[in-house]
Amino acid sequence: MASFNLLLLPGDGIGPEVMTEVKKVADFLGQAGLARFETETDLVGGAAFDAHGKAISEDAMKRALAADAVLFGAVGGPKWAKVPYEHRPEAGLLRLRKDLQLFANLRPAVCYPALADSSSLKREIIEGLDIMIVRELTGGVYFGEPKEIVTLENGEKRAVDTQVYTTHEIERIARVAFDLAKVRRNKVTSSEKHNVMRSGVLWKEVVSKIGASEYPDVELDHHLADACGMQLVRWPKQYDVIVCDNLFGDMLSDIAAMLTGSLGMLPSASLGAPDEKTGQRKALYEPVHGSAPDIAGQGLANPIAMIGSFGMCLRYSFGLVQAADLVERAIADVLASGTRTRDIADKGGNAVGTKEMGDAIVGALKRLA
Ligand code: IPM
Ligand code: MN
After folding, report:
1. pLDDT band (50, 70, 90) for residue 119
2. Fewer Cβ atoms within 10 A, N terminus or C terminus of the chain?
């Protein structure tokens, strides 16, 4: 039986609660003989700051670099609002993305039939939705230098963030998007602001060139990022794969999340380049939702995005396609049976907690396996 090393970084807020449910799913797949998972757990975010004075320890970084994949919960919360900027909880996640060189962030937004009424949009707009946002994750304004607040001679302050992209950074994320489109509905929409940003001009030029020279059979169009946000809520089913930079991808994926009914539904995969020798990619899997401090510790959080992220890990890191399909079917079955956490329950409808949702998914796995 194949064996894989997983580093679990539950983090803060609801992170530990949803991670507990993933462990149940991994244990079940082990018992069912589908694969063995060796797990280690470490701290990240505010939890790591409290223990080590920084958002991720060097030891945890080493483990992350050595693991076959990292599962990440969530970071941040009001408790750490005043810690120095470089040690804020989010810095742990950004360091992982940067040091593992996870440049490709895949954020699928799928509307399960059972949840078509949970979205704030009308059923006909989102029913059957299946889109993939491919977000560049290690460049752009998140990491560009200079990034600073300086005090000017007149005592006023000036803040700078730098949006910067090079050709090869755009080329490699474009290829990820085109490759995905080829096994989906063969359509890529590239989103930027070439009407106001130089980086948008280069983005559009490079994506067009990769499309024409390497993927002539994939349909490519370009939507300005603001218009793309508008189209996502007007008629999202026009999209298949959307490729965009780090910041626009952050925004567009939160919008896409709400199309699926709740931020608690959206998984994500962050992938590096395949290793030249082994073909293995460094990878981190995390739900798109944050640490939700308002409901943390109460057992109310929806674990589906976290479990779905583990499903993506099975598919993209371990090649366990059958197990990944199984996890996705189990989630769909549980939703179809009417089991709901609070975020996706009808008004006044019954809602279960985090643990019950996790148990229901393991129960469905048992029936399906
Ligand atoms: C996300 C989050 C992060 C981001 C934060 C926590 C740094 O919002 O993964 O979308 O902005 O990338
Ligand atoms: Mn975000």
Report:
1. confident
2. N
| Cβ of 250 below 6 Å from ligand 1 | yes
What's the pLDDT tens digit per position in 16-51? 999 999 999 999 999 999 999 999 999 999 999 999
Same domain, 237 and 345: no
In the three-class reduction of DSSP (H, G, I as helix; E, B as strand; rest coil), residue 158 is classed as: strand
Same domain, 245 and 324: no
pLDDT of residue 318: 96
Which residues form the domain of 195? 130-259
Residue 40 in contact with ligand 1 by CB distance below 6 A: no
- Give CA–CA dist 264/242, Å, rounded: 21
Residue among 162, 7, 2 nearest 100 (CA):
7
Q: Whose CA is nearest to atom 8 of ligand 1?
A: 250
Q: Are 280 and 323 contained in the same domain? A: yes
* Residue 27 annotated among the catalytic residues of the structure: no
Q: How many helices (H) and strands (E) does the chain have?
A: 12, 12
CA pair distance 22, 26, nearest whole angstrom: 6
**Which residue, of 213, 228, 259, is where some domain finishes?**
259
243 lines ligand 1 (CB under 6 A): no
- Provide the domain count of the chain: 2
Which residue out of 56, 72, 90 has the highest number of ligand 1 atoms within 8 Å of its CB and is therefore the one to mutate? 90
Residues with CB under 5 A from ligand 2 (ion): 250
Residues 308 and 199 in one domain: no
Instruction: Reply yes or no on whether 250 is catalytic.
Output: yes
Catalytic residue among 112, 142, 285, 316: 142
User: φ, ψ for residue 3 (rounded to 5)?
Assistant: -125, 140
The answer to whether residue 204 is domain-embedded is yes
